[in-house]
Write a structure and sequence with these properties.
The chain is mainly α. It is built from eleven helices and no strands. The longest helix has 16 residues.
């Protein structure tokens, strides 16, 4: 709630903030307790369009394997699954790679090539560390060069195996999500709910 009223000021201030400072703040967000909510607020307020425009652009792409949601929500779900797979402290490489593993799909209709390669190119363009870039590139490969690439692939597979993640159970899954959202909306003070 406190972020939304200040968003217009943040947009004009974003031109004065260095790329290094933006990266530090994004890393804090990703490593924090509520990275999904933080990313979503950035997208809802338009701030993400200034620092990593491909993330909100994923909302426009329907995932061909997870047709009940767009690539954006699929990526946030994979981030949640990856966090659940962490052993100990938050893993910055794992979290970034999970969030960005399908970011290439935001441009795959404009740029030729596999979405994993396009995603690795996007990561390189923004100076995202090479281990993240490599995990994005390898998340569909049989051979993986890092634990993070393996865990991103596992989180992606877990997301695919969730009830409702396949088209044949879509109607049932949507009904369950609507019931969850309706129940959550019944609490005093709740204005918006999103079940994923």
């Amino acid at each position: 709630v406190l972020v939304l009223p200040g968003a217009p000021r943040l947009e004009t201030a974003s031109e004065r903030i260095t790329a290094e400072r933006v990266q530090v703040e994004l890393d804090k967000l990703i490593l924090g307790d509520f990275p999904v909510e933080g990313i979503d607020v950035m997208c809802e307020t338009g701030l993400a369009g200034y620092v990593l425009p491909e993330v909100p652009a994923m909302k426009l792409e329907i995932d061909e394997h997870h047709q009940h949601k767009d690539v954006y929500w699929h990526s946030l779900t994979v981030l949640v699954q990856a966090i659940d797979l962490e052993d100990g402290d938050p893993d910055l490489v794992l979290r970034w790679a999970a969030l960005l593993h399908d970011i290439g799909k935001a441009l795959s209709h404009e740029v030729e090539g596999p979405h994993a390669e396009i995603g690795a190119d996007i990561a390189r363009k923004y100076g995202i560390p090479e281990p993240v870039e490599r995990a994005i590139m390898e998340h569909h490969d049989e051979e993986k060069s890092s634990v993070e690439a393996f865990l991103v692939a596992a989180a992606d597979a877990i997301s695919s195996a969730r009830p409702g993640a396949r088209r044949d159970t879509l109607e049932h899954y949507v009904k369950r999500l609507e019931a969850l959202e309706e129940g959550a909306s019944s609490f005093p003070g709740v204005e918006k709910t999103y079940a994923i």
